[in-house]
Write a structure and sequence with these properties.
By secondary structure, the protein is an all-alpha fold. It contains twelve helices and no strands.
């Protein structure tokens, strides 16, 4: 279906009246329904602005350039999710959040306005690019994972990195020699926000409290999170190149839990690697800023691609298996009607759940 922003959903057409309900109720409620709709929209705008500001403060804890350029910028992921779910009308909240964050960092009001504008335009363009290719917010197809990585993150965030760094150079807050190192940090940070925060929020949106899951399933999930954290810490503190050891845990998470398991593991690995890059430990030692960002972007890109692509492939496979099972059931029922003597329970049994459907 087409969602509120034009994104393609994974279910059928929207129910009648859904459009009215988005704006506070049916017409029979008169002006009170309209005011209720305005209140809901206002709350959404305030929530997005607050989330943008709060996550920006967290991201700035790892700043590398001028106290305002960081290799991990969560607000871009939050902004993109808000635009995808609630529409382009969320842009004022993104703009306000970006302005409030940057106004305290400088260098002056005009550069701050330009930076805030670029931070607003980048997720809008990423959203429009994803809408153009029919992106599913469920991230249940291979093409959705590829689109998010290459269009939403790597391409869309070129705008904010280029404009923001250019503004800092033009305002003489940076020298021209610092353009490319700063640009690499800015682009890496904005792209990482999309690659890791957006899938996590989209997965959390559809997550449901598990019921009746066996204790071993919970133990497996905890072991997976703990193992990912431990192996990433070891890999980023060793002088040996051990970052590849994280990949098996991501494969495990995607195969067993799909996106709801792979997204947190990928985020953990990325955050630990970003911290190591900011302090120059392990594989990031003895490299200049640009080289660190190249290594970090290569690692985070590998992590995101592994988690997202494998999760999407498994989800797509599960959908195909369910469709085949439903088709077999329908065919069996049709044959039973054509052959009345067929006992009602003479139906093919399903041979267990599809991959990763045992629980949370």
């Amino acid at each position: 279906m087409t969602g509120p922003t034009g994104m393609t959903g994974a279910t059928g057409a929207a129910a009648p009246g859904a459009r009215l309900r988005r704006f506070g109720g049916y017409g029979g409620f008169g002006k009170f329904g309209r005011f209720g709709g305005y209140s809901v929209e206002g709350l959404k705008l305030a929530a997005v602005a607050a989330a943008y500001y709060g996550s920006a403060k967290l991201g700035l804890e790892q700043q590398l350039v001028r106290g305002q350029v960081t290799p991990f910028w969560p607000p871009t992921g939050i902004a993109l999710v808000a635009l995808m779910l609630w529409g382009l009308r969320m842009w004022p909240a993104i703009a306000v959040g970006a302005f409030v964050v940057n106004v305290t960092l400088g260098p002056s009001i005009l550069p701050v306005l330009a930076i805030a504008a670029s931070n607003t335009i980048a997720p809008i363009c990423a959203c429009l690019l994803l809408r153009r290719v029919g992106f599913h917010i469920a991230l249940d197809r291979l093409q959705d994972a590829l689109a998010l990585v290459f269009l939403g993150a790597l391409a869309g965030m070129l705008i904010s990195a280029t404009i923001g760094t250019g503004v800092l150079v033009a305002s003489e807050a940076l020298t021209a020699h610092d353009f490319w190192p700063t640009w690499s940090v800015w682009w890496t940070g904005d792209a990482m926000g999309v690659l890791f925060i957006t899938p996590l929020l989209l997965a959390a949106r559809t997550a449901r409290p598990p019921r009746g899951s066996p204790a071993l399933r919970w133990a497996e999930a905890l072991l997976l999170l703990g193992g990912t954290t431990t192996i990433t810490l070891v890999a980023t503190r060793s002088s040996l190149n051990l970052l590849f050891l994280v990949v098996p845990f991501l494969i495990w998470a995607a195969f067993r839990f799909q996106l709801i398991g792979a997204a947190p593991c990928a985020l953990i690995a990325s955050v630990v690697a970003i911290y190591a890059g900011s302090v120059g430990s392990g594989p990031f030692a003895d490299h200049d800023l640009l080289a660190k960002m190249v290594i970090l972007q290569a690692f985070n890109g590998t992590v995101a691609l592994t988690a997202l692509l494998l999760s999407a492939v498994i989800a797509e496979r599960n959908q195909t298996l369910r469709a085949l099972q439903d088709a077999c059931d329908d065919l069996t029922e049709a044959l039973a009607q054509l052959v009345p003597d067929q006992p009602p329970d003479a139906r093919p049994e399903r041979h267990g759940p599809v991959v990763g459907d045992e629980g949370p």
